[in-house]
Specification:
- The structure is a single chain.
- The protein is 56% helix and 19% strand.
- The protein has a 3-stranded parallel beta sheet.
- It is of the alpha/beta class.
- The protein is built from 6 helices and 3 strands, in the order E-H-H-H-H-E-H-E-H.
- The chain has one domain.
- Helix 1 packs across helix 4.
- The two termini are 19 Å apart.
Length: 108
């Protein structure tokens, strides 16, 4: 059974989505186990430098309007996932935004 954790943002502003993604992923970027896994997945040290390349952030975070994010989540199931753990990404302590995202994605 394949399980996937997916960080999601209902955010259509490219710069803001990537900034939120970089902030969210910063805690993982310093962990050797995560870095080594990403390098095995064909990301490069350059992709992991300076908060992550745009290519890396876009691969790790689903962002866009609700329909775009839903399509991205459904793609995991199409690819064989049996479970997708949705991890909303929002500004610090903006739990209302987190709740709005989960509600918008609930029928996926």
């Amino acid at each position: 059974m394949l399980a996937v954790e997916q960080k999601v943002m209902i955010e259509t502003n490219l710069a803001r989505a990537r900034a939120l993604g970089r902030k969210e992923l910063a805690r993982y970027m310093v962990q050797p186990s995560y870095r080594n896994n990403w390098l095995r997945e064909r990301f490069t040290e350059e992709d992991l430098a300076n908060g992550g390349s745009d290519r890396f952030i876009d691969a790790m975070c689903l962002w866009g309007d609700a329909d775009t994010v839903k399509r991205g989540l459904c793609a995991h199931f199409t690819a064989g996932a049996a479970h997708v753990c949705v991890r909303p990404v929002q500004d610090d302590n903006d739990f209302a935004a987190q709740d709005r995202m989960l509600k918008a994605l609930a029928d996926t």
